[in-house]
Design goal:
heterodimer; A: Alpha-Beta Plaits; two-stranded antiparallel sheet; 8 helices; globular; B: alpha/beta; Rossmann fold; Dimethylsulfoxide Reductase, domain 2; Barwin-like endoglucanases; seven-stranded mixed beta sheet; six-stranded mixed beta barrel; 26 helices; 31% helix; 15% strand; binds iron/sulfur cluster
Chain lengths: 221, 812
């Protein structure tokens, strides 16, 4: 098992249902800056025409996760399916993981004195097969699934659509697959020139290899 | 441009709408016990399907309950209208239920009106208080039932309240939200193409969305349908708006337009289409009435794109192109109707022009156009309504050409406030509405309340309006009650049920119980009052013996308690099982949703996609436009009152049952029979000033969610959008406090300079700026729009003109 998520980010309307669903599902600390999930916004204008791009995002559950490597107490760890978790009882709030994470996916939960972050709603997987953020989304931006399961909706989708990653250069082997939009103009406007575009066939072996290297750490929760 | 992004950088940079504020509350989330892995293993013990009420859409949801506490609301995939989603507000519904500021028990005013001093009372005491005042007032007013007004916002329990006040109590002074919302759009479409219908955004190929903002004012299923098909995936989207909204970011073409000039834009589109004979000639031939008159009118008035460019600021070439593209895609093209809509005095004409323009392409009652769909019938209980001889007609009936059965808020309020109603209005019942924030010119609303001898507010929260009440009756929230069963028409019709998830907390009651309680205390005393003052009843009952009199009373509907069944559940069952049977009833209760063949039709395509009806079972077309007997069939949401539409249609007799270009009946009332641009009714913006506009936001529903801590995290207060160049000239920077002043009032609010709004235009969203000290979290966040919006009405329905107020802006 290798859990991942595809994001059809072009659908996002910045309604923030995903943020609220995540908070309610997971009892995330209240507060505007206490988010496991967020919508990145870039604004600008081209020849006087304004544009806004939205990038819904969360923890990438990187296969080669720097936050796990850096954690002195093993509070940050993997569980089954490669989900990156934090054990609050072991966390000493050294914040090394927050520094190490290229995606800024972690924050301090002041109510439990530990770092908190997205868990891919692992407690829901068996019952629902979806995360809370996926289920609630009006325009269905997200699709959660298992990269190892050729028959799951996620892999079927990734075989059809091209995708890219955020900050691929950090070499953390991230697992949020941003789907390349069909519309040329929107593609040009929302994806940087240097961003690599990938296909399933080309990325599959790379991800398998990365998994092979670190999956011995993926223990059952 | 780089796509590499960091969250915190965004948080700082993304001030667009959700401005990050210090809302981190010291308290932890009261539901936060799913945190430990131990807890996660104990799944909730009970799941109840019900319906959301955080806005008007009524999305189907499944509530998870553990130990009597609602832990989570999940989307219910079975409802074709809500398509397996809950928005931010829907998800945050738990915080409406567990809001610490909720009204918990009846309250009776202990200080001056508006000062917020109340004492706790029992239900009996509260009812008794109301009864005493009502009996005195009705005696003094000689049983003129209309001396007590009543108003309500939209909601599934609205009929429970409204029908009692109208049919049993017998007052004609009812006002709901229509005249501060979508009256002109609904009626404009109904009188032009026979119904408001719904835009088939699942199939339309070309959509003009002007002023409507489906990314931020979420409407199901439109929002979900549309944004999966934009950006080269089948639906071309043109957004016309003075603001670059979250809807505009998805547009193929964004057209900034000067506020209040949409009518000129549509007339010019029409001109291009008529002049170049681009319209669907066969459809026009068959379905239009008076097309030649309209054609001549448009050409003679010379509504050219060049003419419109000067008024609207939209380049003539853009107008030309949109007209051509629209017709090239027709009939699968839609000029989107819009909802909360009265922007300028000409709004009714604008909606008519839109409807006719859409129809010119033939996109009416057809897949991909504006569709009417089908509705699953329910049985309805007849109400035995008494006739009170002394009950007068509504006070503001002459305030506009047609004052419908839901009234004109502004005209009504002003008459009461200024004391120039034809007879005294002495009391007001308010249910689920907050006129202190929602009706333009708050000062006058306050004056109105100060004039009244009895104000009763039924609500869940101590709103600004509740603070004007003599008696506050606490309603339970939507998660604590069963509501009247509801059938939603459309392409994929279904029947849905709001069921009680947990018992009402504190001493709160559902409105049904509240109305029953009122009926009980008022029943005998008001009957005595009728006997005392009503000459018709006196004539009828002369020399009757007590038992005959009692029989007369019952037979003629004067028994106020005979309207409601034992409980809501039973009443719902009664209206359902006759048509669909006991088995279906069980299915509806356990699934929350029912439509015939649901088990067979409903399919999951993948984790995100569901099919509700096979394509050949969907109801795109009702074939014979306007000939369907049941006007209700056109109505797709609870904001639209089917009775009113059928009354309107009767009034106009829609003689041709066709697309009406010319409304002769209106002409007699001094209203243009055809959409016409009137330069004199357009409000110009003086140099250095701004036109104020208001709007919606995906994280709040008007002012109903203003105290919700979860939603306040997403947006703590509202900000005033001002064009960045104009702001710079005035030295206004992001976050600066500015003073916005109109003829009627002045507010202070923080500024958000942005290129996303055209010059001379100022915007902030509705629903903020509450002053009630009972609202801990909403108290004085930002500014309320209706403190500065002038109270003017359009001439057809008396709807509030929302976007014609000129304001001054000054840095504080
Ligand atoms: S719920 Fe979906 S559309 Fe809304 S902000 Fe999240 S990803 Fe975007
Ligand atoms: S903050 Fe906690 S989880 Fe992060 S590295 Fe330090 S101990 Fe590990
Ligand atoms: S997967 Fe679950 S924990 Fe992660 S962001 Fe989505 S809702 Fe939150
Ligand atoms: S749109 Fe949102 S608030 Fe409205 S009914 Fe649906 S979930 Fe509730």
């Amino acid at each position: 098992m290798n859990y991942a998520m595809a994001l059809d980010y072009q659908n996002c309307i910045n309604c923030k249902a995903c943020e609220v669903a995540c908070k309610e599902e997971n009892g995330v600390q209240l507060g505007a800056d206490k988010q496991r999930i967020w919508v990145g916004v870039t604004e600008g204008s081209i020849f006087g025409h304004p544009f806004v791009n939205l990038y819904p995002s969360q923890c990438n559950h990187c296969i080669d996760a720097p936050c796990v490597s850096v954690c002195p107490t093993h509070a940050s760890h993997y569980i089954d399916g490669g989900i990156v978790m934090v054990d609050p009882t072991k966390c000493i709030l050294c914040k090394g993981c927050m520094e190490a994470c290229p995606y800024d996916a972690r924050f301090v939960d002041d109510t439990i004195f530990a770092v908190d972050k997205c868990t891919f709603c692992h407690h829901r997987i068996d019952e629902y097969g979806t995360t809370a953020c996926q289920a609630t989304c009006p325009t269905k931006v997200r699709l959660f699934g298992d990269l190892d399961d050729e028959n799951c909706d996620l892999v079927k989708l990734l075989k059809k659509r091209k995708f890219f990653f955020l900050k691929e250069g950090e070499k953390t082997v991230p697992k949020l697959f941003y789907l390349v939009p069909e519309d040329e103009n929107f593609l040009l406007r929302s994806v940087g020139k240097d961003t690599k575009i990938h296909t399933w066939d080309e990325i599959k072996p790379i991800y398998d290899e990365a998994k092979a290297k670190r999956s011995k750490e993926w223990k059952r929760s | 441009m780089k796509v590499e992004i960091s969250r915190r950088r965004f948080l700082q940079g993304s001030v667009a709408l959700s401005v990050v504020g210090g809302t981190a509350l010291g308290t932890s989330n009261i539901l936060a016990d799913t945190k430990t892995s131990e807890d996660n293993k104990i799944r909730p013990t009970k799941k109840t399907p019900t319906l959301c009420e955080m806005c008007v859409n009524k999305c189907a949801l499944i509530a998870q309950v553990r130990n009597g506490v609602i832990k989570k609301l999940d989307p219910n995939p079975l409802f074709p209208k809500s398509k397996n989603m809950l928005c931010a507000r829907g998800d945050a519904g738990i915080h409406a239920l567990y809001d610490p500021d909720r009204l918990k028990y009846p309250l009776i005013r202990a200080g001056k009106r508006g000062d917020g001093k109340y004492r706790r009372a029992s239900w009996d005491e509260a009812f008794e208080y109301i009864k005493e005042k009502m009996v005195k007032i009705l005696d003094e007013e000689k049983d003129n039932r209309s001396c007590i007004g009543y108003c309500t916002g939209e909601g599934m329990a609205e009929p429970t309240y409204k029908e009692f006040m109208a049919e049993k109590f017998g007052s004609s002074n009812f006002i709901n939200h229509a005249s501060i919302c979508l009256q002109t759009a609904i009626s404009g479409y109904a009188l032009t193409i026979g119904g408001y219908g719904m835009a088939d955004l699942d199939n339309a190929k070309y959509i003009i969305m002007a002023g409507a903002n489906r990314a931020e004012a979420i409407l199901t299923p439109d929002t979900m349908d549309l944004f999966k098909r934009t950006r080269g995936r089948g639906a071309k989207l043109v957004v016309v708006d003075p603001r670059f909204t979250n809807t505009a970011i998805h547009a193929d073409t964004y057209v900034p337009i000067k506020v209040g000039t949409d009518l000129a834009f549509v007339l010019a589109l029409t001109y291009v289409v008529i002049k170049n004979r681009l319209y669907n000639r066969e459809f026009v031939e068959k379905n239009f009435d008076n097309f030649n008159v309209y054609k001549l009118h448009i050409l003679q008035q010379n509504y050219t794109p060049q003419w419109a460019e000067k008024i609207t600021g939209v380049p003539a070439a853009t107008i030309e192109k949109i007209a051509y593209d629209f017709m090239a895609n027709a009939p699968e093209s839609v000029y989107y109707q819009g909802r909360r809509s009265t922007w300028a005095a000409t709004d009714f004409q604008l909606r008519r022009a839109q409807a006719i323009f859409s129809a010119l392409g033939g996109g009416i009652d057809i897949k991909g156009g504006i569709v009417f769909g089908r509705k699953l019938p329910l049985d309805k209980e007849e109400i035995n309504s008494p006739i009170y001889a002394n009950a007068q007609e509504r006070i503001e009936k002459n305030a506009a050409a047609i004052i419908g059965s839901s009234g004109s808020w502004i005209a009504w309020r002003n008459m009461v406030a200024q004391g120039n109603a034809p007879y005294p209005v002495r009391g007001l019942f308010v249910y689920k509405q907050n006129p202190m924030l929602s009706v333009p010119n708050t000062k006058k609303t306050k004056e109105m309340f100060e004039k009244l001898d009895l104000v009763v507010v039924i609500d869940t929260m101590p709103s600004d309006t509740a603070m004007m009440a003599d008696v506050i009756l606490p309603e339970c929230t939507y998660l604590e009650r069963e509501d009247p069963i509801k059938s939603f028409g459309g392409v994929e019709p279904a029947i849905v049920l709001r069921q009680k998830v947990i018992n009402p907390m504190y001493e709160t009651k559902p409105v049904l119980e509240i109305m029953k309680g009122l009926a009980k205390v008022l029943n005998d005393p008001l009957w005595k009052n009728t006997l005392k003052h009503d000459e018709d009843v006196q004539d009828d009952t002369k020399d009757m013996k007590p038992d005959e009199l009692e029989k007369y009373r019952k037979e003629n509907g004067f028994d106020l308690e005979d309207m409601y069944g034992a409980n809501q559940e039973e009443m719902n069952k009664k209206s359902f099982v006759g048509k669909y049977g006991e088995e279906a009833w069980k299915e509806l209760r356990s699934k929350g949703v029912f439509y015939p063949h649901m088990k067979e039709y409903f399919k999951q395509i993948d984790k995100n996609t569901f099919e509700y009806y096979p394509e050949n079972k969907k109801s795109y077309s009702i074939d014979k436009l306007g000939e369907e007997a049941d006007p209700d069939a056109y109505i797709h949401d609870t904001c639209i009152n089917p009775k009113e539409i059928s009354e309107l249609r009767k009034f106009f007799k829609t003689p041709s049952k066709k697309i009406e270009c010319y409304l002769g009946n209106l002409k007699k009332k001094g209203i243009d029979a055809m959409p016409t641009w009137r330069e004199e009714s357009y409000v110009k913006i003086p140099k250095g000033k701004f036109k104020f506009i208001t709007g919606r936001h995906a994280q709040f529903t008007q002012d109903a969610t203003q105290n919700n801590i979860m939603l306040l995290e997403l947006m703590k207060e509202n900000y005033a959008w001002i064009n960045d160049k104009e702001a710079e000239k005035r030295g206004i920077k992001f976050g600066d406090e500015i003073e916005v002043t109109s003829k009627i009032g002045s507010v202070r609010i923080k500024a958000y300079p942005t290129p996303k709004i055209i010059p001379q235009t100022l915007f902030y969203i509705h629903g903020f700026g509450a002053k009630s000290t009972g609202l801990t979290f909403a108290h004085r966040n930002g500014a309320s729009d209706n403190e500065i919006i002038e109270d003017r009405i359009e001439p057809v329905f008396g709807s509030a003109i929302m976007h014609d107020t000129i304001v001054d802006v000054r840095k504080v």
